[in-house]
C-alpha cells in the first residue's frame, strides 16, 4: 500500500479529484497526474468488473475463505481500478478481493486509481494477469492470443512485452489447438502443460481424447505420453477404434462432453435404450460435476 505521507500530501478527497478531472481516461490526458497514485475508499457500486479479465473461473470455496479473511482483517492489498467517464470506475486487478468483499456485504473497498483508455486497459490487464503465478496454461494462452488479436502485436513484440522467450509464447499459443475437453482438463489440473504439448501434433480429435483418457486412467507421465504419441504416429500401435453410435447420440456427445469437461461414455443397446457415464478424477471434480447436474 502507498505510504500514508503520500496520501496525506495529496490533500484532497475523491469527490474533489473527480470534480476537477471528470473526463480523464488516458495517461496522456491533461490533469491525469491528479488521479494517478491515489488510494481511496471506493464504493463497490461505482466499480464495473474487468471485461478483459483472463481468469474465467473463480473457485467458490477459495472465494468464501478470502471473504472470511476480509471480514476479520479487512482488504489488506487495495484493488486496482481505472477511471471511466464521470463517477464510474472499472477493475484492473483484484477481482477476487472485489467479489469477496461484495459476498460479505461490504459497501466499499480500498482502491488504487490508475488512468487508461480502452487499449491501455486491455494491455495493462492482460500483461498484469499473465505475470501471476496461479494462472493455468490455457488462461495464459488465451491472454497471449488476445494481445495478438486485439492489440495487433507480433509474437516477437509480445515476448518482449511479457518478458518471455518467443519459444515460450509459441508453446502456450499452440495449446489452443487442442480439443476443448483437453483444454478443460489442463485448466482443472488433471493433465499438465507438458501432457498438452505432447498431444499437439495429434491431429485427429478422437485420438487426442483417447490418449487423454489413457493418461487419466493409467496416470501416465509426460514422457510416457510422448512415447505413446510417437508410437501412434509411427503406426506401431493401433489407433483407438471408433464406437458405432446412433446419430441422435453422435450429434450430442461432443456438446455433453464439453459441458462436463470430460469425454462421457455412451452405450446404446439395439432397442434404443442406453446409459451415459461421466468420469470424475477427484472429490473436487465429483463436486464440480454434481453442481453442474443441479
TrEMBL record:
It comes from the Bacteria. Keywords: Chromosome partition, DNA-binding. Gene3D superfamilies: 1.10.10.2830, 3.90.1530.30. One of its GO terms (molecular function) is DNA binding. CDD domains: SPO0J_N. Residues 40-130 form the ParB-like N-terminal domain. One of its GO terms (cellular component) is chromosome. Belongs to the ParB family. This is ParB/RepB/Spo0J family partition protein.
Amino acid at each position: 500500500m502507498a505510504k500514508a505521507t503520500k496520501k496525506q500530501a495529496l490533500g484532497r478527497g475523491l469527490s474533489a479529484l473527480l470534480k476537477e478531472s471528470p473526463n480523464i481516461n488516458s495517461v496522456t490526458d491533461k490533469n491525469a497526474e491528479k488521479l494517478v497514485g491515489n488510494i481511496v475508499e471506493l464504493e463497490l457500486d461505482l466499480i464495473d468488473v474487468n471485461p478483459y479479465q483472463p481468469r474465467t473461473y473463480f473457485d467458490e470455496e477459495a472465494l468464501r475463505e478470502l471473504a472470511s479473511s476480509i471480514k476479520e482483517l479487512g482488504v489488506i492489498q487495495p484493488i486496482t481500478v481505472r477511471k471511466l467517464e464521470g463517477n464510474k470506475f472499472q477493475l484492473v486487478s483484484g477481482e477476487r478481493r472485489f467479489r469477496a468483499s461484495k459476498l460479505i456485504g461490504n459497501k466499499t473497498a480500498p482502491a488504487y486509481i490508475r488512468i487508461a483508455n480502452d487499449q491501455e486497459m486491455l494491455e495493462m490487464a492482460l500483461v498484469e494477469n499473465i505475470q501471476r503465478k496461479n494462472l493455468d496454461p490455457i488462461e495464459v494462452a488465451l491472454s497471449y492470443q488476445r494481445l495478438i488479436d486485439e492489440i495487433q502485436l507480433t509474437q516477437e513484440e509480445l515476448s518482449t512485452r511479457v518478458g518471455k522467450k518467443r519459444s515460450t509464447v509459441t508453446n502456450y499459443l499452440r495449446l489452443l489447438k487442442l480439443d476443448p475437453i483437453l483444454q478443460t482438463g489442463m485448466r482443472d489440473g488433471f493433465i499438465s502443460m507438458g501432457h498438452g504439448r505432447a498431444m499437439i501434433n495429434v491431429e485427429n480429435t478422437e485420438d487426442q481424447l483417447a490418449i487423454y483418457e489413457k493418461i487419466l486412467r493409467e496416470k501416465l507421465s509426460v514422457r510416457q505420453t510422448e512415447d505413446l504419441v510417437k508410437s501412434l504416429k509411427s503406426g506401431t500401435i493401433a489407433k483407438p477404434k471408433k464406437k458405432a453410435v446412433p446419430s441422435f447420440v453422435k450429434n450430442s456427445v461432443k456438446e455433453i462432453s464439453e459441458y462436463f469437461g470430460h469425454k462421457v461414455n455412451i452405450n446404446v443397446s439395439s432397442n434404443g435404450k442406453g446409459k451415459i457415464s461421466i468420469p470424475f478424477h477427484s472429490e473436487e471434480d465429483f463436486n464440480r460435476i454434481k453442481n453442474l447436474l443441479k
